[in-house]
Amino acid sequence: MERHGEEMMGKLTAFQQSRIILTGAELDVFTRLDDAAASAEALSTALSCDGRAMERLLDALASLGLLQKERGLFSLSGGGRMLSSRHPETILPIVLHFNELWDKWSGLTGVVRTGKPVEGTGGEKGEANRGAFIGAMHAIGRDLSTEIAGAFDASRYVRLLDIGGGSGTYTIAFLRANAQMTAVLFDLAPVITMAEKRLLAEGLSDRVTLVAGDFSRDELPTGCDLALLSAIIHQNSPAQNLDLFGKIFRALNEGGGILIRDHIMDESHTSPPAGAIFAINMLVGTAGGDTYTFGEIREGLEKAGFAEVSLVRTGKEMGGLVGARKLR
Prior knowledge:
Layout: H1 2-26, H2 29-32, E1 38-39, H3 40-46, H4 51-63, E2 67-70, E3 73-76, H5 78-81, H6 92-105, H7 108-114, H8 127-151, E4 159-163, H9 169-177, E5 182-187, H10 189-201, E6 208-212, E7 224-230, H11 238-251, E8 252-262, E9 264-265, H12 273-285, E10 292-293, H13 294-304, E11 307-313, E12 320-325
Parallel strand pairs: 4-5, 4-7, 5-6, 7-8, 9-10
Antiparallel strand pairs: 1-3, 2-3, 8-12, 11-12
Helix pairs in contact: 1-4, 1-6, 3-4, 6-8, 8-9, 11-13
């Protein structure tokens, strides 16, 4: 009984650690400490914060192993460096995105009562929020995209359509894994600008056509034989996904395929646990988004005209894959 109580208390107090890290990231103390160690007083002056409050925050970050404290000076630990904007593999954009989610999750009780997302969500992202979100998706997807592209046999396909492809993380991974392939990346105009910069830096801009548009409103570019929906279907209701699957079916070449990457839930909707928790993220932030079982995804794909629907890969995180083909 005592052990269960300790486990429960650990779950209940986890938010405190999250809030400490989120505040440190919001104030950008990790980037400030990237060059040299500094005192709490110096940081509080530089960041226009209260000196005593800053010192308590830094002490807490040190207790979590993200900072080191010696003779009153704070410096970055190895883990803390990942939160600096200057680190080449920084996860700061992820943390800033989570900071945005904090307010939405705080309204969960009201969402459960009303069935409606937190007021003000679901609209157009501000430029700062959009940049943080796209940066977060790239940081999250760097390693997984390479793993996914290596695990899926795309040798029969020559032109990829990456729908809602962000800054090109999965496009890059698939092109690197498939020398025969070119791609079309389709996303909102401000995101296309971000993708253009990343693809140029990766030396792949000559193999990618960038097309601006909104997949919830516009028809999709034609002439491709593999469509990728990476972390897209969870933001949609079943009806919205059916509409999107229909657009993809119309756009794909005959014999082409569709590949969906997302949480793929079991029939109880409780496993993988990360998917069940992510469904709450969709509940507070979207009007109809959810995480889906293979059966639910297959039903939508078959209604849209796809055949040979298969569960290609399962995963504890958002690494499940569902594939299907357009045979007519």
